[in-house]
Amino acid sequence: MDSSATRHHNQPSPRGPLRTAWSLFGPYRRPFAFALGLRLLISFAAAVPVVTLVWVIELIRTDGLTGGRVLAAVLTVIAGVAAQYGFSYVSYRIAWTSTFRAVGRMRERTLEHVQRLPIGTVRDIGSGDVSTTLTSDMDAVSGYVHHGLPQTLGALALPGFILVGLLTVDPPLAAAVAVSVLVATPLYIWTTRSFGTTALERANLLATANGRITEYIQGLAVIRALDRNAQRLERFRAAVEDVRRINNALATRLVPRTFLAMGVVQLGTPLTIAAAGYWYAGGRIDAGTVLVFLVLVLRVYTPLLEVAGGAEQARLADAALRRIDSLHALAPQVTPEHPGEDPGEPSVRCVDVSFGYQEDTPVLREVSFDVPPRTMTAVVGPSGSGKSTLLALLARFYDVDAGSVQVGGVDVRDLTEEQLFGMFTIVFQDPYLFQGTVRDNIAFGRPEATREMVENAARRAQAHAFIQELPHGYETVVGEGGATLSGGERQRISIARAIVKDAPVILLDEATAALDPLNERAVQEAFAELVRNRTVLVVAHRLNTIRHADQILVLDGGRVVERGTHAELLETAGRYAGLWDERQRAARWRVGQGQD
Amino acid sequence: MTTDTDAGAEPVPGQARTPVDDEAAPDPEPAARGSGAFAVLLSFTREEAGRYVLATVLATLGTLCQLGPFFVIYLAIRDLVAGEATLSSMLTQAGAALLFLLAYYALSAVSTLVSHRAAFRTLARLRTRIGQRLTRVPMGRVTGSRSGTIQRTLTDEVERLEGFLAHAVPEATGAVVAVLATTVWMFLIDWRLALAAVACLAASLWLSGRAVHSSQQLMGGYLAAMARMNGSVVEMVRGMPIVRTFNRTGDTFTETRDAIRAAAEYQADWGLRLLPAFTASFTLAASPALTVVPVGLLLWTTDSIALADLLFFFVLGLGYGAQVTTLVRFSAQASELGHAARVVRELKAAEELPEGDAPADPGDGSVEFVDVSFRYPGATRAALHGVSFRADPGTVTALVGPSGAGKSTVAQLVCRFFDVDSGAVRVGGSDVRALPFAELMERVSFVLQETFLFDDSIDANLRLARPEAGTDEVEAACRAAQAHDFITALPEGYATRIGEHGARLSGGQRQRLSIARALLKDAQIIVLDEATAFIDPENEVATQAAIDELVRGRTVIMIAHRLSTVVGADQILVIDDGQVTERGRHAELLGRDGRYAQMWQAFESAEQIALGRAVHDGTVAGASAGSGE
Questions:
Q1: Which residues does chain B have within 8 Å of residue A536's beta carbon, measured at their own beta carbons?
Q2: A407, A423 contact by CB (below 8 A)
Q3: How many Å lie between the alpha carbon of A269 and the closest alpha carbon of chain B?
Q4: Which residues of B touch A207 (CB under 8 A)?
Q5: Chain A residue with Cα closest to B132
Q6: What sections of the sequence does the record tag as coiled-coil (chain A) (predicted)?
Q7: Do B465 and B520 contact (CB within 8 A), yes or no?
Q8: Which positions 357-376 of B are in contact with A (Cβ < 8 Å)?
Q9: What are φ and ψ of residue A404, in 5° steps?
Q10: A330 contacts A9 by C-beta, under 8 angstroms
Q11: Residue of A69, A569, B425, B448 with fewest CB within 10 Å of its CB?
């Protein structure tokens, strides 16, 4: 790709991350909501033993603890704990299973959506980022939803229940309990916000410092080769020191604030004791009421401190959700629902095609050309001239901004993906092999291919001989974690794959790096087999390979500046003739002896 | 003491590290992780021991103060039940609670600050150590794809340790002290009720152990299901251009969807197997009342406990156990960090190459391999065996052969990226192991296919080679390297920044800058590792001219794929399967009709293949149209 710039990435969807996630939950929304509801009952059950205890203490104080009441108290405590267990089990059971399945569904739906995006968009975002969103980001959401969210809910519910209970006992004293929470809440929100902004500042500063650390590692070979260890190590150390200072500054700023908000909440305890003492001594409330408040006040504040713990997990999940949402915000490629007219003869045509990755920087401007059936067109030009972009547009990796790309006389936008790629085979510079056997990789485009077809294709792609020498021949596992193949061998397997697919139009992006001579020849011969009797468009670097092309297009600055056959272009003595001349000089070069 | 009633330390399925790349493969021995990781993590704290000890003492005192309000409330309730509560007694108690709280928060805040500072210092120290060590480890360890791993270790993995170092050390110690203190206190007051409280907690811990155990039994299958799903998703996304253009979207998606569903079902199944014990564990941890209330009331109705003691357990004993969840949380955190801790330690202790003393004589420009054998660390097969050759000063030695045969290994050994297993590499007559690094680097320049430039000005990048070089020298080098013209055409000439934040240069231009750098350095020996492999019609001629300047009068070891470039070499070594199989000049080797002759023939015919002709009649090698060959 000439440019990796994108024009629509990292935008939130109109409905926002939360609603996107909720809609992706699909049929699991109800059970999940039910589990959250049950979560409230857990807290309710948890309050039972505590309230029982208050009752027991009050009975002791008033000498009312009879044998029957002891039994009742013991049974109530046991029942409360049992209910807590039962509700927990059912709630977690439903929450976990529905979350795991819902996140699985979210993965599926997101992957499905990614599949409908233009291939170019996926490449621009980067397969690494897309994969991370589909794996780790989903896990972060799962972690928060099945664990952090219920926990936060529980941490809020128990104090809530107790506060409501206290309100019914004595509103003024309950107000004394609540006042610290009310004061601390804005403090907590302020702390969280300053966490957010400071973390953002820190992320930026850290990125710079980490960039310098990274540069040191990447440049280590050069640093050591030039013996600049001391000088560069000093810079590295400065970067490490910067990281430390940034972190220190952050801690100095945030630690007191965090403890302040938590501390203010807890100040409710002395306040409640004092207020209770005042009203008790004044005779407004009795000892039983004081007892209730003294036992319960501790149960209000400590769970609230848990909310802060869940906040960190929530932040991570929020960031993950935003990335998931921004993938969903990307517009899918519009393809006809039903196959229309099939493309005719395997010709390719570009009519006034203009395209840019960013709105106002066109990469291709009004490019027009025809590739008649079973002819070859080569595209040459300096790097950045738009060659690879042109190739990507033909295969509809992107949609053109203006003009039209046609294959077999039909606009590519009027073809289903199946019809479109039934016409094309694309051979990329850097062949991707799937984890699987050599045979599966070659038969990828036609799973029903017979053994003969696979081996015949491998022979034509100059791959049969080396495949047979692999430990398990065609059954050898290649791809990630598989047998190690050289670049030339991988390329030949990918050509065999293309031969099996047998599409009438071949798009070829010639590799820029030379291979060792034996591999180089084998790959060139494989290409020659692949293109036989096909319609071919090749982005070429080795001018030798295209000198018999039916048409050569010279691209510069996104425009076709010259076109014609090799002989015609040499005649006009323009850009192409210049490139050809350079190439011939370069081919005559002997190291240390110049080019002549 | 925190008395969270219903939230325990819950294991979190779905939070296991997801290996997106193969380097982050799951730990094969999950059971052995916890304690080992803990020891490694603790070993990092040693050099900041003073700060960590201070933070721990403060945190412990803080945790004890945290018990204060509970004790105060106990006193207030006792007074109240005895009918002795007065305004002044309660105000005193409120004041005491306030003081305890203030002390707790002050001590904790200071402890947290101190421990964070200590943690940041530890991280900086680890990074600096590793950075320093990297200048002395075998170069092969830090180049290529490994550099990505090291980089991640230095930035992300080290950073991951922060949370543990800053929090776990002081807070876990505080929690241990608090649990022990409460236990002892309870036993001093009434051993029977203390036993009841401990029994509840012990049952909870036992159940939690069972839950963890059963989860670990399922861990292998769980990780496998997750790895299969992640692998499938990553492959589907990475291979998407192929999947879609080969019209295989449907089948491939079905496969991935099955993997996703299988992983979700496995997770759900895991949850179901875990839940009974796990739910019971955290319910019990939050409910000491289950044992304390019945036993306490039994003792009370049989008149065998004092009222004050009973109330003590009703207030304080019920918060017992919450600190244990802190411990469980930190030990889970420690085992999660096992991977990070280990890679950091490994890198910190990476083996250094011993350095030689200054040589007696300055040496000439010769390079000599004497019966060199070498195997990459961890590889099963030797990369080179019994390689011997001599490159005389001022001559060109070309290494040719199939990829993977060992050409690059030879080039790297000249620069001592690794040490040989047997034999010797001599540069200027001295064994590379006997030379100081500085001296070796003085003698050898290395020009790679990929050029690394720092995010800095062009001038600074060039001067790395020789900081004291004058402006005229820098410019002369750039002229010779065919770089002066494009540099002066840049907006700020030699002061133009390059790299991420600066001008974008083409591959050929970057290549020429690295050649200019090598020219400035002026070493006698030049190693060219496929420096001319890229076919770039615009830049090729200029780059070749730059290389001509660089190699003039110097000893050259070069790896070449395009055989025409080394036709004039003084010596061509054919490397095949780690051995030198043929050697000689171009004409001699052609006459020998061996591997080289075969390669030459392949090279010439590859140059002749014309795809345009193949389209029409399948002819592979067409007659040349105007090519000079």
A1: 611, 615
A2: yes
A3: 7
A4: none
A5: A233
A6: none
A7: yes
A8: none
A9: -150, 150
A10: yes
A11: A69
Strand partners, B426: B368, B431
Beta-carbon count within 10 A of B593 CB: 10
Structure tokens at B81: 């039940």
Q: How many CB atoms lie within 10 A of CB B218?
A: 16
Q: Does B36 touch chain A (CB under 8 A)?
A: no
Distance from CA of A229 to the nearest CA of B (A): 7
Is A3-329 assigned to CATH 1.20.1560.10? yes
Q: How far apart are CA B398 and CA B555, in angstroms?
A: 11
For residue A394, the chain B residue with the least C-alpha distance is B245
A286 phi/psi in degrees, rounded to 5? -95, 175
Domain locations in chain A?
3-329, 361-588
Q: How far apart are CA B426 and CA B370, in angstroms?
A: 8
Q: Is B545 helix (H, G, I), strand (E, B) or coil?
A: helix
Per residue in B20-66, pLDDT (tens digit) is: 333 333 333 333 344 567 778 788 888 888 999 999 999 999 988 98
Single-letter residue type at B120: F
Which residues from chain A sit within 8 angstroms of residue B311, using beta carbons? 57
User: B241 vs A96, A479, B508, CA distance in Å?
Assistant: 35, 16, 29
Per-residue tens of pLDDT for chain A, all 596 residues: 333 334 445 677 777 788 888 888 889 999 999 999 999 999 899 889 888 988 998 898 888 888 899 999 999 999 999 999 999 999 999 999 999 999 999 999 999 999 999 998 888 888 888 988 998 889 989 988 988 888 888 888 989 999 999 999 999 999 999 999 999 889 888 887 777 777 777 777 888 888 888 888 878 877 777 777 777 888 888 888 988 888 888 888 888 888 888 889 989 999 999 999 999 999 999 998 998 899 888 888 888 877 776 777 787 888 889 889 999 999 899 888 888 888 889 999 999 999 998 878 899 999 999 999 999 999 998 877 888 899 999 999 999 999 999 999 999 999 998 899 999 999 888 888 888 899 999 999 888 999 999 999 999 999 999 999 998 999 999 876 666 788 889 999 999 999 999 999 999 988 877 788 888 899 989 999 999 899 999 998 888 888 889 999 999 989 999 999 999 999 998 999 998 998 888 888 888 777 76
Strands (E), A216-317: none
- CA dist., res. A42 & res. A36, Å (int): 10
Q: CB of A438 within 8 A of CB of A467?
A: yes
A349: β partners: A370, A406
Closest CA to A224 of B369, B353, B19, B203: B353
Measured in angstroms, the CA of A501 and the nearest CA of chain B are apart by 7
ipTM: 0.85
Cα B77 from chain centre: 56
Option in A105, A240, A518 nearest B602 (CB): A518
Q: Which residue of A has its CA nearest to B517?
A: A226
| Token pair belonging to A213 | 């650390």
Q: pTM of whole model > 0.90? A: no
Per-residue pLDDT of A247-262, as tens digits, reads 888 888 888 888 888 8
Amino acid at B161: L
Using an 8 Å CB-CB cutoff, list chain B residues near A53. 289, 293, 314, 318
The verdict on B467 touching A (C-beta cutoff 8 Å) is: yes
Say how many C-beta atoms besides its own lie within 10 A of residue B156's C-beta: 11
Q: Is it true that A3-329 and A361-588 share their CATH fold? A: no
Query: Nearest Cα to A423, choosing from A513, A486, A349, A490?
Result: A349
Residue in chain B lying closest to A50 (CA): B289
CA-closest candidate to residue A52, choices B69, B318, B312: B318
Joined together, the tokens standing for residue A331 give 């517009």
Look up the CATH number of domain A361-588.
Answer: 3.40.50.300
| Phi, psi for A43 (deg, rounded to 5) | -60, -40
